[in-house]
Amino acid sequence: MTLIGNIIWFIFGGLIEAIGWWVAGLLWSITIIGIPVGKQCFKMAKMQLAPFGKEIVEKDSSSIGLIANIIWIIVFGWELAVINLVSALIFGITIIGIPFAKQSLKLAYLSLMPFGKDIRKVK
């Protein structure tokens, strides 16, 4: 299911969304202050390419990560989370779309607060 799901996800929007995240990451990485935000954009691009078979793991959180997440939520996070939640609702209409809705919910969680989280392959 992981391979087939990732191929279908890639064809129907994953590549386009990942390219958007890469461009945003490159633009943010132009300045020294924007490098942490650019790094999170690259993390989101990696997840947008193939979300099946991956899980989000909490890393050690720090006060800087908490502050960065608060700023991220205010500036970017809530819009991205709402977009992924709407996508999950649309996917969830059909039985075939339920696995894709689950991945959209995973992306909503990551897009809301990406600092202090890591992406790992499920074994």
From TrEMBL:
Residues of the Inner membrane component domain: 4-54, 67-117
Q: Which Pfam families match?
A: YccF
Kindly list the residue ranges recorded as spanning the membrane. 6-35, 81-101
Q: Has keyword Membrane?
A: yes
Q: Which domain of life is it from?
A: Bacteria
Please provide the record's keywords in A-Z order.
Membrane, Transmembrane, Transmembrane helix
A single Gene Ontology CC term: plasma membrane
Question: Protein name, please?
Answer: Uncharacterized membrane protein YccF (DUF307 family)
Q: State the organism named in the record.
A: Halanaerobium saccharolyticum
